[in-house]
Every structure is written in C-alpha cells, then in structure tokens.
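Consider a protein example.
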Amino acid sequence: MWKEHKLGLQVVKGNFSQSFLRVGYHKIAQIPAGACNITVKENSKSRNYLALMTPNGVSIINGNWVIDRPGTFFALGTELTYRRPNEIRSRIGESITAPGPLTEDVDVYLIYQQPRPSIYYEYSLPSQNTHTTPEPDTPTDIPSLVETTVDPLDPLGPDEQQNKSNTVDNDIITEKPHPQQVPSEPSLTSDTQPTYTWAQTGHTPCSSTCGTGRRQVLWECVERHSSTTVPVDLCDFELQPANQDEECNVQPCPAYWDVGEWSDCSRKCGPGTQQRQVICRQVTHVHADRRETLDTVATELCGSTERPVTKSICQLKICSQWEIRSEWRSCSVPCGVGQRSREVVCVSNQGDAEEDEECNMNLRPDTLQNCDMGACARSWFTSLWSHRCSAECGSGNRTRTALCLMDHVTDLPLGNCEGKRPEEVTSCSSGQCQSRLEWYTGPWGQCSAECGNGTQTRSVACILNNNGQLEVVDQLKCSNLPQPITSQACRLKACGVQWYVTDWSVCSRSCNGGYRVREVRCLTDNVVPSDHCDPGLTPESREECNTQPCVAETDPSCPDQYHNCLVVVQARLCVYPYYRSVCCASCSSATKTYPNTFNKNHIR
C-alpha cells in the first residue's frame, strides 16, 4: 500500500497478488468510512470474484457464497457499481466502483478459485496531516531502512510472510523506504563534506508473474561512501537517471480454463439444464498497462482432468401443481342424469393461486362429472299458458302443452302417466266484437313429397264476425285485407341418393303390342351421379305398350279387290299407288300399325 497527497486528498493505493490460496473468501483490504473515489478491480480476467462485506459480516456484494448479477447497488451511503464482463473474448476483469463518501467501514474480499489473482484498489481520504521533510542537520528519530507490514488475513504465518518480504508480486506486503538518521554530532569536519549520489536500489514489482512482464529500475539518493539512504533533496535532480523499463518473468504462463457465463436454464420450473463455454487459454504477453495477450491453446495444456463442467443441472423454482379445493358439489338435477362440479386451482409451491397456464394442462383433474340420480317419477309437465287470446275480440282460446315425462329428456307416450291429463286449451275473452271481416285459415295439409322439396296447401275463408257470430262470406269482401298465403314450400327431410327417371317415350306401335323407353339415373341431393342407390329398387327403363289387337276399319269406299292382299302388305308393296288402290283396306290398316314402315318417304 502506498499513499499520495493531491489537493487536500490523501490517495491510498494497493495491489494484491499471490500465487496460490485456499478456495474461499480472503480479505484484501479495509476501506474506512469517509473514503471516496473508490476503485477495486482485477488486473486481468479470471474465475475469481470480488466481494464487499461490512466488518460485522453483512454482505454488500457477492457475500455468503451468493454471486450477484452485475449492476448498481445502493449501500453504505453511496451508489456502488459492480461490473463483470460477460463475453468470453473479453480480457477485462471484474470491478467495483463508488463515488463515496462511505458512511461506514467496508472490507474488500477476494473469492479465490483460480491461481495467481491480481487485484488493484484505490480510494481517497481527506488529508489531515501535512508531511514536512526534515532538514539535514536536524536530529530526528528515524526508523530502520525498510518497514514490513504483515497482513493478518494472509493464510501463511508471520514467519513465512517475513521470508516473502521481498516478493511483493505474491503478497500484500509494503516496503516503505525511510531517510537515514542524520547524526546529531556530525563526524565529518567542514573540510571533508559528505558527497551524495544516485544509486540503483531495486525494481518495481513485475507487471506479471509470467508471460513476459515489465518493471522499472528504482533509484535512491545515498551517501557515496557509506551507501546509506539520505533525503532525495541532497542529490542533484538533474543527475537523476531516467526511469528504465525492462522485461521480467519471461517464462510462459501456465494455461488455464477460461469459463463463460452459464446460459439460462432450459426450463422455467423444475429440474432443467444450463450450459457454458469452456476454452483453454494461455497468457503470452503482459503489457505495461496490464493488458494481456491471450491465445487459445490445445486443451491438453490445461489438463483434461481439471476441465470445468460445461453442462449443469438447474432449477429456477419448483413447478406449480394442481390442487383440488372442494369436494364434488350436488348433482344439477334431482333425478335422471345431470352434472356435478368441483373447484380445481393451479397453485405455486408457496400455496398462492396462479394462472392455469403455469400448471401442466394435461394433468388437470376433472372439474365436471356426470351424475345419475335415478329414474324420475312419471309426471305430467305443462308449459305456461299462451299470453295472447286466439281472438282479438269476443271469445277465444289460450293454449299450453302437456307432456308425460320420466326425466328431463325423455318424452313418454301420454298414457304412461298417472292421473288425468292436464287441460291444454282454456277459454278467454277479448271483449265484444263489432261486425268486421277477417281472413280465417285452415291447417296446413301434408307435404307433397316425403323427402326433398315439396309443397303444402291450406284453405282460407273470408269470415264476418258479428259479436262472436261467425259467417262465411264471399272472399271478394275481404279483398281489402292482406290475404294469407295458401301454399308454401316444405321439406320433411333430405332424400339422399335416389333414382330419377324421364318421361316415357312414344309407344313403338299403336296396337298388337309395342314398347316404350325412358332414361333412369341414380343422383344425390346435389344432382351428382352416384352408385349408392338400391339396385333392387331400380325403375324399369322399358315396358310394353298398346297391347290391344288392331281392328280393321271397314271403309266402303276403300275395299280390297283381291283376296291375297295380305301378301301385298307383307311384301311392302303398299308404297306403290297401284297396290294401294287394289288393296286399299289392307294397306290402310298396315299404315296405321306400322307408320314408319309405310311412309311415303321410304319408297325405294
């Protein structure tokens, strides 16, 4: 540790570096209350962590084996900023900074995990004393040349620390040079005044314990003959050698595992996994500003047996579970089949209700269940009476529906219920009627088609209502009133596939048996051909017709002159005028029976 004075502030600086420590917390320094401009940082990235705790053990950052996320913390009367570079390519180590001033003391700790840690800390305190350099001829009590401060937190004992007093790279030890005491009675005469010169007394700590670091040569003012250190103002500052920079610790650094941050857990709740990147690196050079040149090297240099794990089990929280909050409630019906319910809630491991999506929906217990309360008694059920009377004036009726029910969904035949069937029609009156004309409609008739599109009709009548006395009059008297429709389309059900036929063709003969034909097709409701009609119900596509015998008409003006006119007909000679005239009756009869055969246009 060393101190500087700047503009009324005492700046305290220190370095901590040591090759090996036991794994765990190690106190580096204590920063007193009132300190400001506080900086604690790693000189190079490592797997170690910085921590802050109060002297009585209260954690500020990374205490109690809990590693906090980087960010801003408000404690000790100031704002503390904790940074931890996340990128694996980054060479910058952790740091904690605060503007201060602190309201109480705080201890700086190192959480040791990787060998050769290197920590720098600095803070400012208001100056309370001013330093005055004693005059050379003023006798003062001067301590020994070098004062060694032993750190009580070092895992080594006081004797071991004393043996390491010259290796400031590895221990928290500070060498403080002091001016040699000037004798109260000078031993030299005025003729032989002592001479002073600059002498090399050592080096600054090497910037690195390996990988080629840098250090500077230290010079002190000494008495030429005795080589004792004297105040620097006795030497000529113009003759002071310039600071020399030289390499040190050129041996290569051991390779180490560079470990990245853990990824997010693969599951939001319950056991999951997380991964991180692990690379074997080696420091090849340490610059004067403590920047390091890192190279990725073969994993064998880091030792495969000590390689950090790249995959770990994690659990952010315990998964929420389904909880049944109530027993099954009463069935929704007093008899027959109904439903019953219960309350099921998704709760956290703390017992708090959460959204259903937080629980596994596939494991949700049933909230509804069918329940059978047994057969209901066969009872008469009636609907409410209609609100309007059937007649706008005079006497009319109101109606309701009566049902014999065994349960809420079954409609039994009306004869299965005990007792008399409730009345479904009751009389009502809307006041006296004056003579007026009204249309009265009859019930709708049956649909003309058992399936598919059909029509149904009803009758309408013009009625004269005179104080309840109804009289049918001519419909023309009601022509000024909107007449109800007398027919409407109806459709009982879809026909599905069915056979369709065309009209019969003309019979091929007018007598003595001919035939006629029609086209038959199987079609769906959408008039699309189908193969699913019942073959056994296929309509006939051909039938006989005009089976009655042909009766010859006797026409006195058209007799047969020869007895063998039948041969003329069979030889189809009736097309010739001669044969038609001599066999007039036979040819005329044949023309009626076979109209196409004896057409005049068929003369060959």
Summary: The radius of gyration is 60 Å.
